[in-house]
Amino acid sequence: MRRTVWAVLMLLCCATGVEAQADVAEEAYFQAVADFFDVSAAEIGILRERGLPDDELAVVLFVARRAGVSVEALAALRRAGQDWSVLLQRYGVGADALHVPIPDDGDAGRLAGAYERYRSTTPGGWSSLALANDDIVTLVNVRLLSETLGLAPAEVLRRAGPEGPFSSRFRAFMR
To answer: What pLDDT is recorded for position 18?
Structure first.
């Protein structure tokens, strides 16, 4: 899995022009998603065509796998306007499944609010924590990039910055 991602990253280094590098970085992100969830690039392409935000592709695959439900059905519910928090509750995927460890004194960046709730709750109560859509999307993407690139979750958060989609900021992870 890492070999494929690194091959795409090497293309990124060789690409000339900011626009070409951005395109290669996004393709590297989509390849990382495909590799992480062991799905084909074609399946990622189909999900992209269905109109979900790029960063939510990983969430659809993560939740569908955890809940044992159809990726297509879950994507349709999300496109219809269902909040991720409602979908997670509906399919029994708690915030405990989303948690990625960062040091207690570490900067949680865009997840500061979520980690404040995690830290103020015993781990046994994490499953019932309410998380915002953005927190859910960020947690899944931090897990994906941390495990795919071999970076600590806190490092992924630092490199991701305070906002912006992971798919278009993937280049920041290659520094």
So the answer is: 47
Give which of 154, 93, 163 is closest to 128, Cα–Cα.
93
pLDDT tens for residues 88-117? 999 999 999 999 999 988 788 889 999 999
Residues in the chain: 175
pLDDT in tens, 159-170: 888 877 888 777
DSSP states along the chain: -HHHHHHHHHHHHH--SHHHHHHHHHHHHHHHHHHHTT--HHHHHHHHHTT--TTHHHHHHHHHHHHT--HHHHHHHHHTT--HHHHHHHTT--HHHH-----TTS--GGGHHHHHHHHTS-GGGGGG----HHHHHHHHHHHHHHHHHT--HHHHHHHH-SSS-HHHHGGGGG-
pTM of structure: 0.85
- Would you kindly state where each structural domain of the chain is located, as residue ranges? 2-174
Neighbours of 83 (CB within 10 A): 13
Question: 5-28 pLDDT, tens per residue?
Answer: 544 444 445 545 444 455 677 888
